[in-house]
């Protein structure tokens, strides 16, 4: 706990990061190295003796940075964005400095209490239903990732259905039930749903989305009917708001009605798009959320909060506590009934003081600042559309209800193989970085606005490159 | 990405943390507030407009700090330690500043490569078997917590046994298998094992540990025989090195031999004690590790690396990739065969650049510095023993092979209820903080050396308080 070293070495590190941020636009966006590059640069064993902090910082540029893909480069358009900002980094310094492990209220009360408060702030800022507020039976929790939130929701739903079915048939075993359980999601849902189903070990049935990549109640209803007829037990569905391939929004209202009727637990995964709901003009996309048992999105994607910070809301926390409650004496405390013990709502035991990040970002940016940030990205995506639309070589594909910061396009009326070659050529060019997707047998290119630093001129630059590389490809 | 604000606000935050570290010994170790205290101090909604960073920092002392339990206070002796240090915090600044999401090699190659390298450094520094190095079929990964490592190991083992049994009986379903699977652990194992078994949904059988709280092969063998006779399928065991209640070390050699013979997957949870293996004098406690399929411990407990950083080693990574592999196009890349994609070895998809923390701490402290840190804590525990041992009112209970930094004691020949009152009186006194445990029907007090700042004088102070509070209690 060397306070002086913290100040001096911390300042050196901040300086390094600040310089990095200032120069990031000039760096090649994708690392230009081969697998194994770093092993050739670093020693084979840890040093016996301490080294100077200056020498560590000096090595960063020569060893680490050449292998970094710059997610915050204004030329990074791959995946979905991941957030960061100076207040979030400051909050992380504080969380690291205090370094409490807030698994229960007593382990560090501020850690639990601030989390409940800022999660309520966030719910109100987004206009989420009241039942997600901590004042009722529900509440918010910061999970590490959307993948964990999906898994946690699935486990709570499994626990609920097991309890219910056990009443009817006291000889029922979990294994026997598991062989009958069915989870549903759209064929556009994120791979983390497959992973959660794999982990829990239950059947996953993908519902064919419509031509706009939207999952609708009718198809869900039909699938449920089929499965019930086969003796299976439908119990859980993941609806996605803002799918990874095309930012499609499942039809919550029709899906939700089916869930209500059929007694399915609806979990909403709004990993990326959920962030937009702090802007009132996108709230209509939340219609139907009243049917959800749980909801999750990632402030670490688009709300200026560093990874990890996934905001999950539960309608009825007892299902979660039931699913996870293990209570040895060394973790018991006198306040268990008056405050949430977040360890019962998550997979890990230990937890960082992550709510500080949300608190700092809310205060340093204000809701106004956060909305402006979201809107700017959406404007830039529109700007890209305005550039590509008039060009006859391209088509914009699967335009979502709101494309938000993502644009999906491909070479018009052309085979997948040609589009694949275009993507390859673009990424080999290395001036911008995109990832593809395969949707309804179509190979498509995804351009997601990702960086705080992206401005119109960068989008124009990206467009010029796409246009130039396409010209070269088509002239071959 | 405001570089100037990062430097100035970062410096302010570092200053706050440095002051906190300097004053931590003078703060009451446990928060002295009631549930709900913070809601009365903070607004009900997030601010619309940005606030100044100075005002945020100013509010810390009046709102957050009163609710913090000071895990790094020299008077904190509860749970097990959690680590922090200035190089780890600096590395977090960097990780937050670069903010890449290293789920696959291509997503940011340095992130994956540094992790493989420093995990190899760590394995070598601890003298772990070669099969845990990344050069073979195994390798190391940083998980968030020991709880996740246990779950991941359990899932990989489930995937292995399912594959094997399916060959014998192609009609086997996972649910049917699950109803037969048995997981074993000592009755002293951590509650995260209960949680992992709950999540996976399989039977957990606790093996009675011996009088020294050690799980031995003989008891494991007997339990397996019983379970096989009932048609069950033993497949997984967690051996603990350094149990939470008393820091007991399961007998890896005899348990490991049984696992080999009975084809059980042995996972070792050395969450706290594992850190000591960087000191050669404790390495004999690792005898038998050659029987393990997986091993995990928490540098975030005792190796100066902030939470979260749990170091997990796998003997054969294919079992993990098999258990978790979901591979959509937007995550595929050209280098999948030449570099590990850590997303297949863990529950979440996204991952922070956590290896920077290990790298910075190794270099800034040197292995020598880390060993000195571990040894000092162990010396302080011995010093506490030297103070309490001559006092006839107390007995030291369940002394482990190596107690490391933990001492377990109670009032000699006295009922649990009196010991419970002693703990309550100590924690109400609030000058030091301990948590109890219940071991073999005995209520015991645990004193764990936790803080970097703890010196002989603090241990002496703790002893004086224990002595004084006991005198008062016994005179009633
Ligand atoms: C719709 C959706 N769900 C889930 C995820 C996974 O997020 P995480 O890494 O937080 O698990 C993503 C990531 O892009 C996503 O787009
Ligand atoms: C033996 C043991 N295993 C597991 C854990 C849980 O650690 P984590 O919070 O990293 O899951 C602990 C925590 O004290 C422990 O002592």
UniProtKB/TrEMBL annotation, chains A, B:
Its EC number(s): 4.1.1.28
Cofactor: pyridoxal 5'-phosphate
GO annotations of cellular component type: cytoplasm
Pfam family, one: Pyridoxal_deC
Keyword flag Lyase: yes
GO MF term set: aromatic-L-amino-acid decarboxylase activity; pyridoxal phosphate binding
InterPro entries: Aromatic_deC, PyrdxlP-dep_de-COase, PyrdxlP-dep_Trfase, PyrdxlP-dep_Trfase_major, PyrdxlP-dep_Trfase_small, Pyridoxal-P_BS
Modified residues (N6-(pyridoxal phosphate)lysine): 301
UniProt keyword annotations, A-Z: Catecholamine biosynthesis, Decarboxylase, Lyase, Pyridoxal phosphate
Keyword Lyase attached: yes
GO BP annotations, alphabetical order: amino acid metabolic process; carboxylic acid metabolic process; catecholamine biosynthetic process; serotonin biosynthetic process
Assembly mode: Homodimer.
UniProt record similarity statement: Belongs to the group II decarboxylase family.
Name of protein: Aromatic-L-amino-acid decarboxylase
């Amino acid at each position: 706990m060397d306070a002086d070293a913290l100040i001096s070495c911390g300042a050196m590190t901040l300086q390094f990061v600040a310089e990095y941020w200032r120069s990031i636009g000039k760096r090649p966006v994708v690392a230009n190295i081969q697998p194994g590059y770093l092993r050739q640069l670093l020693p084979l064993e840890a040093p016996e003796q301490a080294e100077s902090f200056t020498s560590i910082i000096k090595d960063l540029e020569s060893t680490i940075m050449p292998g970094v893909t710059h997610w915050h480069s204004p030329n990074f358009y791959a995946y979905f964005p991941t957030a960061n900002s100076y207040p979030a980094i400051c909050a992380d310094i504080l969380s690291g400095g205090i370094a409490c492990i807030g698994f229960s209220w007593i382990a560090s009360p501020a850690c639990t209490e601030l989390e409940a408060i800022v999660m309520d702030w966030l719910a109100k800022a987004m206009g989420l239903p009241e039942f997600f507020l901590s004042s009722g039976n529900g509440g918010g929790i910061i999970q590490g990732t959307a993948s964990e939130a999906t898994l946690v929701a699935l486990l709570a739903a499994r626990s609920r259905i097991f309890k219910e079915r056990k009443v009817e048939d006291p000889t029922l075993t979990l294994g026997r039930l598991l062989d009958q359980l069915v989870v549903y999601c759209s064929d556009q849902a994120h791979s983390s749903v497959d992973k959660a189903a794999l982990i829990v070990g239950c059947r996953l049935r993908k519902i064919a989305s419509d031509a706009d990549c939207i999952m609708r109640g009718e198809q869900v209803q039909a699938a449920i009917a089929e499965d019930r007829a086969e003796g299976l037990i439908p119990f859980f569905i993941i609806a996605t708001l803002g799918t990874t391939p095309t930012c499609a929004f499942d039809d919550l209202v029709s899906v939700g009605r089916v869930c209500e009727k059929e007694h399915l637990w609806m979990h909403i995964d709004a990993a990326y798009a959920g962030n937009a709901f702090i802007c009132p003009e996108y709230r209509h996309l939340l219609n139907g959320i009243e049917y959800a048992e749980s909801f999750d999105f990632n402030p670490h994607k688009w709300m200026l909060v560093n990874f990890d910070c996934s905001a999950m809301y539960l309608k009825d926390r007892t299902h979660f506590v039931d699913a996870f409650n293990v209570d040895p004496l060394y973790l018991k405390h006198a306040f268990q009934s008056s405050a949430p013990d977040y360890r019962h709502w998550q997979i890990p035991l230990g937890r960082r003081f992550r709510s500080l990040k949300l608190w700092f970002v809310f205060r340093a940016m204000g809701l106004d600042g956060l909305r402006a940030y979201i809107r700017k990205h959406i404007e830039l995506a529109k700007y890209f559309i305005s550039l590509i639309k008039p060009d006859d070589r391209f088509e914009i594909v699967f335009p979502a209800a709101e494309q938000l910061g993502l644009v999906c396009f491909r070479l018009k009326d052309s085979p997948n193989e040609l589009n694949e070659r275009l993507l390859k050529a673009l990424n080999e060019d290395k001036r911008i970085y995109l990832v593809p997707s395969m949707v309804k047998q179509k190979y498509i290119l995804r351009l997601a606005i990702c960086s705080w630093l992206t401005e119109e001129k960068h989008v124009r630059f990206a467009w010029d490159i796409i246009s130039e590389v396409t010209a070269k490809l088509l002239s071959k």
